[in-house]
Amino acid sequence: MTTPAPAASSAAAVPPVVAIAHHSGFGHTSVLAEAVREGAADTGATVHLVKVDEITEEQWALLDTADAIVFGSPTYMGTASGAFHVFAEATSKRWATRAWQDKLAAGFTNSGSKSGDKLHTLQFFSVLAAQHGMHWINLGLPSGWHSTTASENDLNRLGFYLGAGAQTDTDRGPDGVHEADIATAEHLGRRVAAQAAVYAAGRAAVAA
Ligand SMILES: Cc1cc2nc3c(=O)[nH]c(=O)nc-3n(C[C@H](O)[C@H](O)[C@H](O)COP(=O)(O)O)c2cc1C
């Protein structure tokens, strides 16, 4: 008896497109954006890094065609930076046409304090995603550094669930971004890209 060949899955063959829309005033959050890019690229995804304070029409078009958009910003005064908020308001054009409906979304932030009210920035990102009808992908990691046997070098050392949260001493440059936070951001990139692939394959299967 011959076993029939499995149906070809064209959806699985097409790598997802992940865009990282981010701002960084002093370069710390840029290090994390690069880590998200590396994590997503590891899975074979096509990745676009977009600096929201320099965004061009071509880059808006890249966001429009992405399967997933990862939002990233430092936490300034307990929320995303002013430059990120300018970008968020500019997305209202996309909101009006539902252009980003059913894309995936996720987020990361960095601040000077261990807490620094970073959760509020991640919540802002998730509400922005919800306003667009996007599907939020959380970090998907247990919290690290929470017992006598744990360490500050653990993945998700700051214990965020909604997205990736990092801390960098304010008197250090971009090379001061913590390795564990970089690894956590890479994890987020891999997770978003993997989920985007699952979502695209599922959508193709439903349409078939
Ligand atoms: C205007 C301003 C506001 C800030 N507000 C906060 C804050 O609310 N919480 C915090 O922990 N750090 C705060 N910081 C520190 C930054 O989050 C920190 O320096 C971060 O690493 C900057 O990231 P970037 O280099 O990507 O801009 C603030 C810094 C600035 C310049």
From TrEMBL:
Q: What is its EC number?
A: 1.6.5.2
Q: Does the keyword Flavoprotein apply?
A: no
Task: Give the Gene3D superfamilies listed for this entry.
Answer: 3.40.50.360
* PANTHER family, sorted: FLAVODOXIN-RELATED PROTEIN WRBA-RELATED, FLAVOPROTEIN-LIKE PROTEIN YCP4-RELATED
The record's listing under PROSITE patterns reads: FLAVODOXIN_LIKE
Q: Name one GO molecular function term.
A: FMN binding
| Keyword set includes Magnesium | no
Q: Name one Pfam family in it.
A: FMN_red
From the record, give the transmembrane residue ranges.
none
Question: Which terms are listed as keywords in the entry?
Answer: Oxidoreductase
Instruction: Tell me the organism.
Output: Streptomyces platensis
Q: Where is the Flavodoxin-like domain?
A: 18-163
Coiled coil ranges: none
Q: Mind telling me which GO cellular component terms the entry cites?
A: membrane
Q: What's the name of the protein?
A: Flavodoxin family protein
